[in-house]
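note to self: dont lose this again. the chain is below, predicted strucutre after it. 282 aa total, dont forget to put it in the shared folder this time
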Amino acid sequence: MTPQQYVQDKAAQSGSSFYYAFLFLPPPRRAAITAFYAFCREVDDVVDEMQDPSVAGAKLQWWRQEVAAAYAGQPSHPALRALMVCAADFGIEAAHLNAVIDGCQVDLEQTRFLDFPGLANYCHLVAGVVGEVAASIFGRSQAQTTLYAHKLGLAMQLTNIIRDVGDDARRGRIYLPMSELQRFDVKASEILRREAPWGYSERFEALMRFQAERAHAVYDEAMALLPAADRGPQKPGLMMANIYRTLLREIEAQGFQVLHQRTSLTPLRKLWIAARTHVRGR
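---
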């Protein structure tokens, strides 16, 4: 199996919304974003599949060494072998990859966030930097497009957090800021139990509605930042935004039943949203 085949399989198997946006890119850009996405998945899997924190920490350190080796011209992992072919063409730097690893290190060491600024810093590492790299691969001519990409990355990560409250609680994690739990009188223990009547309540729904309203506001801020000159090249990002925002609205319509289930869109629906965005350009 070639490195290119490896990253293609990694992206396709993930079932991610990102994959459907990649399909509309010309081959060189599609190859670059697929390789970058595969790298992100590999690093993220270290934490998601963690059994022993010390082993996971050692794996993240290995990835740091692998990034250094790759930028010294000696990549060994197929994801980085595929990525190094196109990294220079799209301005993908070692600092970008190390920021993604730093975000996963936070996941490894921290299961709570005191306030929203702390959560936003984490989102910058795991989503904002990813958005910046993706925007460069898609094609941009305006510096402001980078600001748009960071803001859109934050909006999509906030959507992930809302969707995954139950899954994260199962692993003992709560990404909702503790200060906001206190504001809405929701106890961490209620979320960790993940069942009625302990989890679902008017207080919990009010907390989640606040989270959703903030996410929608960030989507709106991102769209306002996207320069008209880059709207065409950035269509894949708009596809992802529309898929994620549709997911967010679906969760809202279900009354934020996120503790015992993980809401998702079907592959066909994601593809339809991506195709519609491609045609409409928004």
